[in-house]
Design a protein that fits this description.
Blueprint: H1 4-30, E1 39-40, E2 43-47, E3 62-65, E4 68-69, E5 79-88, E6 96-100, E7 103-104, E8 106-111, E9 114-118, E10 134-138, E11 146-155, E12 163-164, E13 168-171, H2 172-210, H3 215-235, H4 243-270, H5 275-293, H6 298-330, H7 333-356, H8 372-456, H9 461-481, H10 489-504, E14 510-514, H11 526-547, E15 551-559, E16 562-569, H12 582-593
Parallel strand pairs: 14-15
Antiparallel strand pairs: 1-13, 2-3, 2-5, 4-12, 5-11, 6-10, 6-13, 7-12, 8-9, 8-11, 15-16
């Protein structure tokens, strides 16, 4: 609930802003704060003639007062001349100028039969001034004592738009600032507003292009575009199109379609789904625009002003009512700003409708272009509010997502820790099983065989010692296989050499070590290390027992991604006799178990 002070403030904004905008447009845009030194032309002679040179004072004419509205009297020609008489006792001793605050459509100004300047071309399509202020400097010496005649040629298209507002002469230093102020308010400010509208069209349009689901942005961009194009009717002087075509598109169609598009925008803003009404409005716009294009002459302007503009002004009351009722319910800033913008548009549109229907003076000019700031602020606030709200929701969702991710990460970490414990337990169990198998296949077998020899009572002390030594060597091999070797076969062979050399010292066999560095073997774990060591142990045992050699050579090499380990001796030729080749079979099986091959060559 709003407090009484807040309600008063909202009411002031809702109704005060349109009033202030109207007062601003009327007071500063059309009432001139002119210095006392100026000379107004209050009465002039009117001559309706198409000639392009000033007529003489003696020509038939009618005395009229300014401003002259062509729609207030019968008009027989699209061109008219106005002759104003200025009596000077003493010519001015400084630069003077002539100032025309409001003319439609184009004028050419002469002084004493000498051209001062014009607003643009008089050829069709005639230059469109639309109450654009004009100022012409009067060269020194052109004004002289006595009678001076100001000759103004005016051309209008269509005829009903013809208007010559007040005309002022005065010192340049005093008259020029009034003109510049008026020009900025009538043209410069409108150009600034139009530029902002086109910028908004591009920016919001691109946002809608990249996010088509943001239909509110799309309709706002279209509304800004139609209003900006309508403002070109005020800004463009020399039309590239015939006057009727230009008026049809920029003056009437763009303003009418703005009313339709704004209605759809308000529907999107309020979350209303009235597709049937929106389709009806679009069909109305289409069936009103296309036939009107083919109508020519005075009938076109009668239909455009009396029918098209009236219908579209009435349609504009509908979204205004929606926004106002929404504001009454919500009492929020967005609804307040949109309602204020709506009241501003309707107030200025009503003024222009009265002006175009000749119910008020045309000297004041059109107002609708000055309502754009209220619309920009209102619509812009809605879009900014939605953008900020979307960002807040996105940030909140991101925070919730981050929190959920953190919770899931913690849960995954806990699961990973449990999994790692289980994996370690499985690895320990697997390693325990491997060691048990290796002990059973190696030292276990040797001890069982030794025990059998002892129980049979057939083994000598030397045989028992040899059997126990073999078991002890296998135990040492198992211990060596457990050392971390990091896939380095050279390191494994180095440990094997440390075990082998003490065994050969003082014996008949000399060791020749020709081991070089070899590439690492990925996945070369303890099991494979043990198998390699057992193969080498068995091969060297065969050499020592059967070869009767004097040298034992162990060398390595690599080729095509394969590693070669060679055990060679210079003993007698031949392999162990049949029945004693079980060790060779074991060597073959061990080589196959680790993915290698064993080749025995007897020279």
């Amino acid at each position: 609930m709003l407090t009484p002070a807040q309600r008063w403030l909202h009411g002031l904004i809702l109704f005060g802003v349109p009033f202030l905008l109207s007062w601003y447009a009327f007071t500063f845009s059309h009432t001139q704060l002119l210095p006392e030194a100026v000379l107004p032309l209050q009465q002039v002679l009117l001559l309706e003639t198409a000639q392009d040179t000033p007529p003489p004072l003696e020509a038939p004419s009618t005395l009229i007062s300014l401003p002259d509205h062509w729609n207030d009297r019968p008009v027989n020609s699209a061109t008219a001349w106005y002759l104003g008489i200025i009596n000077l006792n003493v010519p001015p001793n400084r630069l003077w100028g002539i100032y025309l605050p409001s003319v439609n459509m184009n004028v050419e100004v002469h002084l004493n039969d000498q051209v001062l300047g014009s607003g643009g071309t008089f050829d069709d399509p005639v230059a469109r001034l639309w109450s654009r202020p004009l100022y012409f400097a009067i060269p020194n010496g052109m004004l002289h004592p006595g009678v001076n005649v100001v000759q103004i040629r005016l051309k209008a298209d269509p005829l009903a738009n013809g208007l010559l507002g007040p005309v002022y002469l005065g010192p340049h230093s005093e008259l020029r600032p009034a003109y510049e102020q008026h020009y900025f308010l009538r043209i410069g400010l409108v150009a600034l507003i139009t530029g902002v509208l086109f910028i908004l069209t591009v920016v919001i349009g691109l946002l809608w292009l990249f996010r088509p689901q943001e239909t509110l942005c799309g309709w706002f961009a279209l509304a800004s575009l139609t209003w900006g194009l309508h403002n070109l009717n005020i800004l463009v002087i020399n039309s590239p199109l015939p006057t009727r075509i230009w008026d049809w598109f920029f003056n009437y169609m763009m303003l009418g379609w703005f009313s339709i598009i704004s209605t759809i925008f308000i529907h999107r803003f309020l979350g209303l789904h009235r597709r049937w009404l929106e389709r009806s409005l679009l069909l109305l716009g289409a069936f009103g625009s296309v036939p009107l294009f083919f109508v020519e002459g005075p009938l076109f302007y009668w239909l455009a002003i009396r029918v098209w503009d009236t219908v579209l002004l009435s349609i504009g009351l509908y979204p205004l009512g929606l926004v106002y009722l929404t504001y009454r319910q919500r009492r929020d800033t967005a609804s307040l700003l949109l309602a204020t913008a709506g009241f501003s548009i309707i107030a200025f549109a009503l003024h222009d409708w009265l002006l175009m229907n000749n119910l008020i003076s045309r000297v004041e000019g059109l107002y609708i272009q000055y309502a754009a700031p209220a619309v920009i602020i209102g619509f812009g606030w809605v879009l900014i509010r939605d953008f900020v709200r979307a960002r807040d929701e996105a940030e909140q969702l991101n925070q919730e997502l981050e929190q959920r991710v953190a919770e899931k990460s913690s849960e995954l970490e806990r699961n990973y820790q449990r999994l790692r414990v289980l994996e370690n337990q499985q690895l320990l169990a697997a390693e325990r099983d491997r060691i048990m198998r290796d002990m059973h296949d190696g030292i276990g077998g040797h001890l069982v065989a030794t025990l059998s020899m002892v129980e049979a009572g057939q083994a000598s002390r030397a045989q028992l010692a040899d059997a126990l030594r073999t078991a002890l060597d296998d135990l040492r091999l198992m211990i060596d296989s457990l050392d971390p070797v990091e896939d380095d076969l050279s390191l494994v062979l180095g440990m094997f050499r440390a075990r082998l050399e003490p065994r050969l010292q003082g014996g008949p066999v000399q060791l020749r070590w020709q081991v070089s560095d070899v590439p690492p073997l990925p996945g070369f774990g303890p099991h494979k290390v043990l198998q390699v060591l057992r193969i080498l142990q068995e091969a060297i045992t065969n050499v020592l027992k059967h070869a009767q050699a004097s040298t034992l050579t162990l060398r390595t090499g690599s080729s095509d991604g394969q590693i070669l380990i060679e055990v060679a001796d210079n003993g007698r030729n031949g392999l162990p006799q049949t029945g004693k080749g079980r060790g060779l079979d074991n060597m073959q099986q061990r080589a196959q178990a680790i993915g290698g091959t064993l080749e025995i060559i007897a020279d």
